[in-house]
Amino acid sequence: MNRPMTSAAIGLSRQVIARAVDAALEEDLGLVGDITSAATIPEDARAKAVIAARQSGVVAGIGLAEYAFRTLDPAAEIHITANDGDRVAAGSAIAHVSGSARALLSAERVALNFLGRLSGIATLTRAYVDAVSGTSATIVDTRKTTPGLRALEKYAVRCGGGRNHRVGLFDAILIKDNHIVAAGGLAAAIERARQTAGHLVKIEVEVDTLEQLREAVRYPIDAILLDNMKPETLREAVAIAGRRVLLEASGGVNLDTVRAIAETGVDLISVGALTHSAPVLDLGLDMGYSDR
């Protein structure tokens, strides 16, 4: 498999996987379970199935699919042939599963929903990462995630070779224009932030003009977000900052523009589309045969 270096080694805890999959199974099975499988398939029927990619992409979320099958059939046998972060071709097998026929069919949609959604994010992320290859820019995500699924979706970004921006409002300080207005100015906002932030908490300030950038670089901050600036303006911003802080470009980023943005010399490019607009990777579960 073609797997570049990623930060997906920081994986998902069992608790995160269990919470997400258990909720999804409860939503799907409801009060009485899979009435279609119960009505049509003998209780002791066994089956084998393969999860296959119907289009090329990057895998993410195999652990959630595995957990779904094992939750409904603890004795299920699962052979994984493509790990998270692997690039797969259309028609490639991702995993082979055998066990209770009822359990496989009851877990199928939850397993494929997670696997398809996260693989779609990983696939789109890889496209952005490939687009800026050879530059010094790093592709990062945003908080524009599906409510309740942020940890999973940010993990998928890592599987695609991207990096995570702050996870939430709790782990980094990002002072935006409305914060500056409410605080009574940039200086006041930064001063209050520095008084309250722990020594491991980064402080970033958002600007949308070069004049604001010139003011921001005078303060002891860690990063500056350059909002909706054209490539020529971004180049000026890089020159003004002079590597004193990390520079993050955001806004107006897509696969047609990201290379030009990266070539301006910015350090980071945040892309909300990685999580809010990634198409689901087309995957399927194909049943082989069943016996008793």
Keywords, separated by commas or semicolons:
disordered N terminus, alpha/beta, six-stranded parallel sheet, 292 residues, Aldehyde Oxidoreductase, domain 3, TIM Barrel
Architecture overview:
With 292 residues, the chain is α/β, with parallel strands linked by helices. The protein has helices spanning 14-29, 35-40, 62-72, 101-131, 150-159, 177-183, 186-196, 210-216, 231-241, 258-262, 273-276, and strands at residues 46-53, 57-58, 77-80, 87-88, 93-100, 138-140, 173-175, 203-207, 223-227, 246-250, 268-270, 283-291. The protein has a 6-stranded parallel beta sheet with strand order 6-11-10-9-8-7. Strands 3-5-1-12 form a 4-stranded antiparallel beta sheet, with helices on one face. A two-stranded antiparallel ribbon has the order 2-4. Helix 1 (14-29) crosses helix 4 (101-131) and helix 4 (101-131) crosses helix 5. The longest helix has 31 residues, at 101-131. Residues 1-7 have low confidence and may be disordered.
- What is the count of DSSP helices, taking H or I runs of 4+ residues? 11
CATH class of the largest domain: Alpha Beta
Helix content bin: 40-55%
Tally of extended strands? 12
Instruction: Give start-end ranges of low-pLDDT stretches.
Output: 1-7
CATH architecture of the largest domain: Alpha-Beta Barrel
**Roughly what is the average pLDDT, rounded to an integer?**
94
Biggest sheet features? 6 strands, parallel
The fraction of residues assigned to DSSP E strands is 15-25%
The helix/strand order is HHEEHEEEHEHEHHEHEHEHEHE
Counting helices, strands and paired strands, the structural category is: alpha/beta
Strand order of the largest sheet: 6-11-10-9-8-7
CATH homology superfamily of the largest domain:
Aldolase class I
Gap from first CA to last CA: 36 Å
